[in-house]
Amino acid sequence: MSKSESAPPLDKDQLRSLLERSDASGLLKLFQHGMAIALVVILLAVFDNGAVQGLLIITLGVLLTFLFAPLHETIHKTAFDSPLLNEVVAWVSGLVLILPPKYFQAFHMAHHRHTQVVGKDPELDVEKPESWGQYLRNLAGVDYWMGQIKVLVLFAVGHHHPHFVSAVKRPGIVKEARIFLLVYILLLCFSLVGHADVLWKYWVLPMLIGQPLLRAFLLAEHSLCPHVPDMLKNTRTTLTNKWARWICWNMSFHAEHHAYPAIPFHRLPHAHTLLAPHIDVICHGYVNLHKEITRTF
What SS3 class is residue 85? Predict the structure, then answer.
């Protein structure tokens, strides 16, 4: 069943309104996210109190790891109306996250085409946590970091052939992996010259600390959902507060996104008002969802 077949029909006027992309909306959101990062970086540079710095590093980590949200939107080409803006923001976000956008796009589009289909959905190549040990390992991001470094290096040397990467897309992914790896090597050299504390304090450490919150967020999307083709049954929407919706660029409306992946992030709240009665799996809050997950162990 296709994505459009799995969603209830929307009339042409509703769909036209929901699919409207906007450079203004995307740039405003990006400005807010970017300014929040810049403000925390400035405060971190100014304050030398240990407790304050600790809080700022945690905040910076959350803001940096949730650059996953604009990366996700831009590989869908929905963050902005401008193709160039989508490409540039995807590249910068992917560089911060060690997640090359061309690779992630191939991975994520396969996930959309085969959501919850074992053997075809690449997200199911790694099993969901079934014990406390697996759960804590997932939240810590151990598998994410090891997996991304492995993917980056293997693609860069031309020895990675995942099932979701076509022969047509492979050369672009290999080239991008090599560019990313070169950038990271140059940054490493920069740190070895005498500025290691800069990268560690403003990027590496915050990313390590912020990753668990992103892992917890992503676990909510499909965990405990049935392995069926209907996008409004196999994907969860999580109702949460405005601050969580702000930092995740409305990705909490995930069933709506899977039913109509061309709907831009800024139109997902309205899409929810239209599609909510048809969504099978809706959870009120991420804490409640993780209680539900851990009760299955």
Answer: helix
Question: Using one digit for the tens of pLDDT, what is the confidence trace for 274-294?
Answer: 999 999 999 999 999 999 999
Q: Residue 230's closest CA among 9, 6, 5?
A: 6
CA-based nearest residue to 65, from 212, 210, 244: 210
Q: How remote is the C-alpha of 63 from its chain's centroid?
A: 12
Q: What is the DSSP letter of 229?
A: S
Alpha-carbon span 91 to 74, nearest angstrom: 9
Q: Which of 197, 249, 187 is nearest to 34 (CA)?
A: 249
238 pairs with which residues across the strands?
283
pLDDT at position 207: 97
Encoded tokens for 206? 């915050």
Q: How far apart are the first and last CA of the chain?
A: 32
Give me the residues of the chain with pLDDT under 50, please: 1-5
C-alpha–C-alpha distance, residues 125 and 107, integer Å: 11
- 105, 170 contact by CB (below 8 A): no
